[in-house]
Design goal:
It is a single chain. The chain is an all-alpha fold and about 260 residues long. The protein is about 75% helix and about 0% strand. Strands 1-2 form a two-stranded antiparallel ribbon. Strand 1 and strand 2 form a beta hairpin. Helix 5 runs parallel beside helix 7, helix 6 packs antiparallel against helix 7 and helix 7 runs antiparallel to helix 8.
Length: about 260
């Protein structure tokens, strides 16, 4: 894994931790890296992070449900659904249905695997093979944990566009997975992009994909708006964990290389 090629986003060095929290995190992880090595520590930290994220998702689901009931956050849901229904057209319904399949349980894994293989082959790097499956697995854990914790009903079936779905509504798995997968792909791409304009375009496309995928779920009546909003929040949080763990890997991998190559 060519760590030296992935250690910068433009002029920013990802292995330099300028905040007290970042430096504290490096000190905490350092014993684990010395014991297990950078690669094993990377996988172990992602596994631990995924478990913690799933547990926090289940716990936060209960808090979310209380907030919705108490403060009327769900008042956003019915108006958003009614607006979506008013905008529907037969041809557009079919187009959005086709688009939302990209983020489904078949389309998203196929897309992620294709991108992973392409990036790994072109770069001769294991980074995509580690980060993309790890990020996707954590996203799946969070989706399952949230659905099991609340079991929220989807919008009325008479207001939904077929094909209908019967699994719990909260959180939107399409929305959460779109944020995570698009975010990791964008992160992997910007690591090798030298032009600022290209990096901005890559991030903008990833954001557009995640946003439109989430809104498509509301438009089709497959999810409430708050299911999508919370899924975006959870997805961004998990994406931050994955990127932070990779930065820690780069930090210790490059530090090890520099130490071994230093003159005695």
């Amino acid at each position: 894994m060519p760590a030296h090629q992935d250690s910068h986003v433009g002029p920013r060095d990802l292995t330099r931790w300028t905040t007290p929290v970042g430096r504290f995190l490096v000190r905490c992880v350092s014993p684990l890296v010395r014991w297990a090595g950078p690669h094993a520590a990377l996988l172990l930290l992602i596994a631990i992070g995924g478990g913690v994220a799933a547990a926090l998702t289940a716990a936060s689901a209960e808090v979310y449900e209380s907030v919705v009931d108490a403060d009327g956050v769900a008042a956003l849901d019915q108006p958003a659904l009614e607006l979506a229904v008013s905008w529907r057209e037969g041809w557009f319904d079919a187009a959005v249905t086709g688009y939302t399949h990209i983020g489904g349980p078949i389309g998203m894994p196929v897309l992620a695997v294709a991108i992973m293989v392409l990036l790994a082959a072109r770069r001769r790097s294991r980074t995509p093979v580690i980060l993309l499956p790890a990020a996707a697995f954590g996203s799946l854990l969070m989706t399952v944990a949230g659905k099991d914790a609340i079991g929220r009903l989807r919008p009325p079936i008479e207001l939904a566009v077929p094909p209908y779905e019967s699994s719990p509504s909260f959180p939107s798995g399409h929305s959460l997975n779109a944020v995570v997968i698009a975010g990791v792909v964008a992160y992997l791409l910007v690591l090798r992009q030298n032009r600022k304009r290209t990096r901005l375009l890559t991030v903008a496309l990833a954001v557009a994909f995640a946003v439109t995928m989430g809104l498509s779920r509301v438009y089709l009546g497959h999810h409430w708006l708050t299911d999508v909003l919370v899924a975006w929040t959870l997805g961004v949080a998990w994406l931050a964990v994955v990127i932070t763990v990779h930065r820690l890997f780069l930090t210790f991998r490059l530090h090890r290389t520099a130490t071994r190559g230093a003159p005695v």
